[in-house]
Specification:
single chain; 75 residues; mainly alpha; 4 helices; 0% strand
């Protein structure tokens, strides 16, 4: 994420050369690079996660996938 903010990294060299400015010049405009670690920490602190699929839903998805494959074969 923050690779383009490091001047000696290949991402930083590319960005600086493409923009024609020093890495420090576009540092304040790299919102995504600054916000991503903060949002990750906030999600971790709040316990927001991706929950695994329960067995019933998993079976329904497998059946639907099999029906879709059978329909694609017959077409």
């Amino acid at each position: 994420m923050t690779g383009c903010l490091v001047p000696w990294n290949s991402g930083g060299v590319y960005q600086a050369a493409t923009l024609g400015v020093a890495t420090i010049a576009y540092l304040p405009f790299a919102f995504f690079n600054w916000l991503s670690p903060l949002v990750t920490l906030i999600y971790g602190w709040l316990g927001i996660t991706i929950h695994p699929i329960d067995e019933e839903t998993k079976k329904r998805l497998e059946i639907a996938k099999e029906k879709e494959a059978a329909a694609a074969e017959s077409a």
